[in-house]
Amino acid sequence: MRPHVELIHDDDYIWHAAELVSGEGRASERRLSVDEEDGSSSLRIDFHTDWGRGPGIHHADTEYYVLEGSMTYGGREIGKGGYVYAPQGVPTDAITFAEGTRILHYREYGDAGFDPVDGLNAPRWADAREDVIVIDSEAMNWDAVPNPGPMPGLFIKYLHVDPVTGFYTRLVFCQEGWTDHRLAHHPCYEEAYTTQGHMEYNFGTLDQGSYFFRPARVKHGHFTTMEGGMTMLLRSDGELFNWYTQNEWIRWGGEAVNYGPDGGRMRWSQSSHDLGKGSVRRSDRDLADLAASVRYQREQGAKDVDYVPNGVGSDKSMLAVAKALDAANLQGGHGGHDHQYGHEHGDHEHGDHEHVLRADWGADPGSLEHREERTDAGAHNRGQGRPWKPGEPIPAPIISTLPVRSRSRGRWDADGM
């Protein structure tokens, strides 16, 4: 499984010698995120010399995207925006990169293995499917996203869509002023690398060179797009559905046994209300854009709630705790043995009359899971993406409080988390 990385700038990664099997030339890679279980990797690669390798078969579904410089595949040269998708087990043609080229390189469901072959007529693997895709994305037109969130201004270029799994890679452009005041979670993972522009959201600043890998079901949001808009290469391991949350809060704690000042009751996570009291706050521009997003939704007749910055107004987590205490008092409590059942403990098993306190927290998260969600091959990983179709139970979000984040870009003010 891959860790939750949000938000890191690629400047904060160290360089490694690029793992490009059977190639000739010199290159370095920054490992944006890696799945040590199946070999999946997302990499930024710089070529210090001309580099190339001949025809062969990749051990993973493999993608190349040119950020700067040029790539030649099968004799066709493509500059910035060039994209090649090489499916696992399918013979691919020779590929070269010019000195100074910078690319994004993805391997999915396999390692860096590469088997040289004599040509494209070499046999495919028995379970191979799809074909090689070669695209000059700079020559493509932007298409407006049919469901862009709460307001217009979102555009897309599809680079690859797996017809079986729904896995897709696309370029997304958010025009200046595109805003979403809601939090969302999805049934699939979502990762992105910013290629241009600037956006703000609860985990930090998305600017050129910033990256995130967000496992399925992790809440995120409160996006505001700054001057000039923002473009990113975005990938998901399945069809992306948006499930929204508002009026959010979180608070939990425990009894410290042998740590903390004086031990005792500890709060080891905070509500968004607490985090808004410090120096980290939304800018006036952000607040105005978020309010405009709410207004637009209401003008369209959608039911919505006001965006309220963290640390402002009543603390919803404390209100919820108070309601839970009220529920416990109304149900009589069971902390001691003051109940009037009129029996001796020796006359029965205590469980016969066990009185369980049940505060009403709304839907039980367990009722929102897929039936098989915790018994499949990904049962060990709550953040693994799983196929979902309309009409099925919608899984509850995962609370991710401390993702890996950047020294230079990852703010993590937890606004709304």
UniProtKB/TrEMBL annotation:
Transmembrane segments annotated in the record for this chain: none
Region described as Disordered: spans on this chain: 330-417
Residue stretches of biased makeup (Basic and acidic residues): 335-358, 367-379
Pfam families, alphabetized: DUF4437
Protein name: DUF4437 domain-containing protein
Biological source species: Microtetraspora glauca
